[in-house]
Amino acid sequence: MNRTLAASLALATVAALTACGDKSTASQSPSQTLTSAGTTPVTNTPTSKPPVSPTIPPLTIPPAAASGLTVTSAESFARFYFEALGYLVATGDPTLTRQWADKNCLACKTLADHYQTIYEAGGSITGDTRVRVTQVIQVRLIRKDTAAVVLKAREGKKVQRNAPGATPTTYPPGTLTWDLTLAAAGNHWTMFEMVTK
Question: What is the 3-state secondary structure (H, E, C) of the chain?
Fold first, then answer.
């Protein structure tokens, strides 16, 4: 699994990904584990925001992904979240990936922390930082408050430097299959679990 996002998950914390996929917590209804605010996405505001390159346009969630708890909105949300992951990789800004993640999504937290740390240390990710959804294999509602999405996402070739002058690590392009669980937060979805197959 020599891809940037998957490698980041593995290197940053294998335990977090294992815990995120732990069936003892996954068997709970995601709505039972949402914060008491429940109607809005959990926002973990970073203490400092890395500078965003003026060549990278800001990203906002499309209306179709932010309203309703349907199969259509679940697919739109999953696509948006992967765009947000690409934005995170390109900028180190975890605002969207944190804002639209359930507080129990350990993979979401691991990825956000990993890339934020790189950029705050003066490191960078260069090359093709986009994460493109190439195929949505399945979208289904498990309950009124939970959706499952299986998709394939392609990452381009990237070069990662963890700090200025650090030895670069090159990640080749490739496609991974992701198994996602979305949880309801009011009238929209949040990312509850992300596991690579």
Answer: CCCHHHHHHHHHCHHHHHHHCCHHHHCCCHHHHCCCCCCCCCCCCCCCCCCCCCCCCCCCCCHHHHCCCCHHHHHHHHHHHHHHHHHHHHHCCCHHHHHCECCCCHHHHHHHHHHHHHHHCCCEEEECCCEEEEEEEEEEEEECCEEEEEEEEEECCEEEECCCCCCCEEECCEEEEEEEEEEEECCEEEEEEEEEC
Whether 146 is covered by a domain: the verdict is: yes
| In-domain check, residue 50 | no
Residues contacting 115, CB < 8 A, separation 6+: 8, 88, 89, 92, 94, 125
Domains held by the chain: number: 1
Check which CATH number belongs to the domain holding 134 and give it.
3.10.450.50
> pLDDT tens for residues 141-170?
999 999 999 999 999 999 999 999 999 999
Question: Which pTM was predicted?
Answer: 0.77
Q: Which two tokens stand for residue 128?
A: 């093709």
Note whether residue 54 is domain-resident.
no
**How far is 32 from 187, CA to CA, in rounded Å?**
15
Instruction: Give pLDDT tens digits for 99-114.
Output: 999 999 999 999 999 9
